[in-house]
Amino acid sequence: MGIKVVCNRCFGGFSISRKCAEHMAQLGSEEAKELLKIVVEDDYWHAGWDGDRHDPILVKAVLELGPDADGDCADLRVVELEGDRYIIDEYDGIESVVEPSDINWIVVQSTEK
Q1: Is residue 107 part of a domain?
Q2: 5, 86 Cβ separation under 8 angstroms
Q3: pLDDT tens-digit profile of 46-86?
Q4: Is residue 21 in a domain?
Q5: How far is CA 62 from CA 16, 24, 71, 104, 113, in A?
Q6: Total of domains in the chain
Q7: CA–CA gap between residue 101 and residue 113 (Å, rounded)
Q8: What is the DSSP letter of 103?
């Protein structure tokens, strides 16, 4: 079983819901506990996640809560890696998980004699 990573699959940007942060805090995430202390509740609760996208508690919360984990303007998905390296590629909030095997590398041959 590979490493799992959470990414956002819609315009708007990555964010988690208050319900997700609360669930993560119950699961023991110190980062989520801190997030709940600093984000003020209002009609538009928007919390960016600065922790690792492969954080096991984040992954577990997104899998368990489904769409209830999504922050406003987010559509969170869990992606399983083939290896142990990734980057998050983002355009207007839509993200994709890129692994080294996904990159078409240009190999430069030496022309020196």
Answers
A1: no
A2: yes
A3: 567 788 999 999 999 999 999 999 988 899 999 999 999 99
A4: yes
A5: 9, 9, 11, 31, 56
A6: 1
A7: 32
A8: S
> Which residue matches tokens 């506990």?
33
Closest CA to 55 of 12, 25, 93: 25
Q: Are 62 and 87 in contact (CB under 8 A)?
A: no
66, part of any domain: yes
Cα 48 to Cα 109: distance, rounded to the nearest angstrom: 43
Identify the three-state secondary structure at position 27: coil
Nearest CA to 61 out of 12, 22, 10, 93 is that of 22
Range of the domain at 88: 4-102
Residues 6+ apart with CB under 8 A from 8: 14, 15, 74, 75, 76, 77, 93, 94, 95
Q: What is the pLDDT of residue 6?
A: 97
Flag whether 36 is in a domain: yes
